[in-house]
Design goal:
By secondary structure, the protein is an alpha+beta fold. The protein has 4 helices and 7 strands; from the N terminus they run H-H-E-E-E-E-E-H-E-E-H. Strands 1, 2, 3, 4, 5, 6 and 7 form a 7-stranded antiparallel β-sheet that branches. A hairpin with a 2-residue loop joins strand 6 (114-120) and strand 7 (123-133).
């Protein structure tokens, strides 16, 4: 299977697995507040059918990483929050308790965000997720998208040695 088909399959699995992550307000058209922030931050994006913003980050070392920004938001005691997340590993890689322990220990090393495990009938995925205020300024959004993508990409490289996500 060539790399482009593998990447498309990976994206499809990620989208299927992350749809039911949390109970959030519906926003199928995408949160319009994000568009100008993404443009100001210089972040190229697509809106997927679920209303999530999908970004493909390219790092200086040539690696790439998918990052998603949820349009739907949640309310935490009067604070509107949204998620930025990125898959770090899929499927069989997660079967090991050693990998799960590694992800838990990795949570200690980050200030913003954490590793989450999602199981579904389509497979398992480990996501690095940061919950942020729903309306950050463009500079903060850019930094956090980069952070989430870099942490997830580093874990993918450590666990698989590949660049599929």
């Amino acid at each position: 299977m060539n790399a482009q088909i593998a990447r498309l399959l990976t994206v499809a699995v990620c989208l299927l697995l992350t749809a039911p992550l949390a109970a959030q307000d519906e926003a199928p058209l995408g949160d319009a507040r994000l568009r100008p922030l993404l443009a100001e931050a210089g972040l190229i994006h697509e809106l997927d059918p679920d209303g999530e913003y999908r970004l493909l980050l390219e790092f200086e070392d040539g690696r790439t990483q998918l990052v998603f920004i949820r349009s739907g938001t949640s309310n935490l005691e009067g604070l509107e929050v949204r998620e930025i997340y990125s898959p770090g590993c899929l499927g069989d890689t997660l079967a090991s308790s050693m990998v799960m322990t590694l992800l838990l220990h990795a949570n200690h090393d980050v200030i913003m965000g954490a590793w989450e495990y999602q199981a579904s009938t389509q497979g398992d995925v480990a996501l690095f997720c940061a919950r942020i205020p729903a309306d950050p300024d463009a500079a903060v959004l850019r930094r956090l998208v980069g952070l989430v993508g870099q942490v997830a990409d580093d874990m993918e490289e450590l666990l698989t040695g590949k660049d599929d996500l």
